[in-house]
Design goal:
Layout: H1 11-20, H2 23-32, E1 37-38, H3 39-46, H4 50-62, E2 66-71, E3 74-79, H5 86-99, H6 103-117, H7 120-130, H8 134-142, H9 145-152, E4 160-164, H10 170-175, E5 181-186, H11 189-198, E6 205-209, E7 222-228, H12 237-247, E8 248-259, H13 265-271, H14 280-289, E9 292-300, E10 311-318, H15 325-338
Length: 339
């Protein structure tokens, strides 16, 4: 039978009580419970000399109430959250409750608010000087992928997305971590082979072979559909967009990116494309003719290193209340037969 645990000696409790038995140390704990502050800031808020503040900080640090870290030549202090024993936390909770209404503590909070507001101009001054080079600096420091990742994270995680004309699967792979399922469709055997190699180990991607004018997808089976640099390769863009609309669920979203209308015939032949691209107005009409609503189309500024024609971006939505055109035509024929 195990012996009962020996009662704790009172030394620790007495030490904790002793470290709290001072008005200045209680004021410090109130300040450092919510903010990380340096000695100079604490002296300003408490209106006490540095020697006094440093002495009280040492007492609190020795008793485990505070943690600190170096920042350049200074040290920053904050209450050691979660690192104290339960009894110590209860003791501070009682002390905080009994002292939070002290006029001196309230005055400290006001001075702290003023002191913290003085930190803001430093950030404002930085961005004022960095505005002209911020994009380059941000890219050098943090890269560019985070922006794309953040935008993709806006997609509903339960969506099924079709990447139509998926090619080697670059966009398919980018989408896969953010949605429930991605279906890539392409007519080229070579492209799909490269895409399957890229997708090795990705379990929420399905690749299918088929043409854009006759998609191997069920009606109303996807929440979103992409046509990225694919529409200029089909002989009947209207039929491809109609197929895109067919596979969208009611309320689903369509996105098209393709070449802005240009006159580089040699480029078109070299790339094996069927047409010279689309004006925003023409692409909007194609989307509308397919039954897609709220189409927005705009030309995209060419990227600095891009050598091909500029691009156009279009997006549209399938009506949440879809009238099946085939069923309507069949009903009309039946009505004509009866009459």
């Amino acid at each position: 039978m195990a012996l009962p645990e020996a009662p704790r000696q009172p030394d620790a409790l007495l030490a904790w009580m002793g470290s709290l038995a001072d008005a200045t140390r209680l004021r410090l704990l109130h300040l450092l419970e919510r903010h990380e502050l340096g000695v100079v800031e604490l002296c300003d808020v408490l209106q006490l000399p540095q020697s006094t503040v440093s002495r009280h900080l040492k007492v609190l640090g020795d008793q485990g109430w505070l943690r600190s870290r170096a920042q350049g030549t200074n040290r920053l202090y904050r209450v050691a959250e979660g690192e104290r024993e339960a009894a110590a936390r209860k003791l501070w909770s009682l002390a905080r409750e009994q002292t939070s209404a002290w006029p001196t503590v309230q005055q400290d909070r006001l001075r702290l608010t003023r002191r913290l507001s003085e930190r803001e101009p430093a950030a404002q001054a930085f961005f004022a000087g960095a505005a002209g080079k911020w994009d380059k600096l941000r890219g050098e420091l943090y890269g560019d992928a985070f922006g794309r990742e953040a935008l993709l994270a806006l997609l509903p995680s339960d969506w099924v997305v079709a990447d139509l004309g998926c090619g080697t699967g670059q966009s398919t792979a980018a989408l896969a971590p953010f949605v429930r399922r991605v279906i890539g469709v392409d007519q080229s055997t070579a492209m799909l082979k490269a895409a399957r190699k890229r997708m090795a180990g990705v379990d929420n991607v399905e690749l299918r072979q088929g043409s854009l004018e006759a998609l191997p997808l069920e009606d109303a089976s996807v929440d979103g559909a992409l046509l990225l640099l694919a529409l200029t390769y089909v002989s009947d863009p209207g039929q491809a967009v109609a197929e895109m609309a067919r596979v969208l669920r009611p309320g689903g979203h369509a996105v098209v990116v393709d070449l802005l209308r240009h006159d580089r015939e040699e480029f078109r032949r070299q790339m094996g494309q069927q047409n010279l691209g689309f004006t925003p107005e023409a692409l909007s009409q194609v989307l509308g003719a397919a039954g897609l609503q709220a189409a927005t189309c705009r030309a995209l500024p060419p990227e600095p290193q891009a050598k091909g024609p500029a691009l156009v971006l279009a997006s549209a939505q399938k009506s949440p209340q879809v009238i099946d055109l085939r069923e309507r035509r069949q009903a009309s024929k039946k009505e004509e037969a009866r009459t």
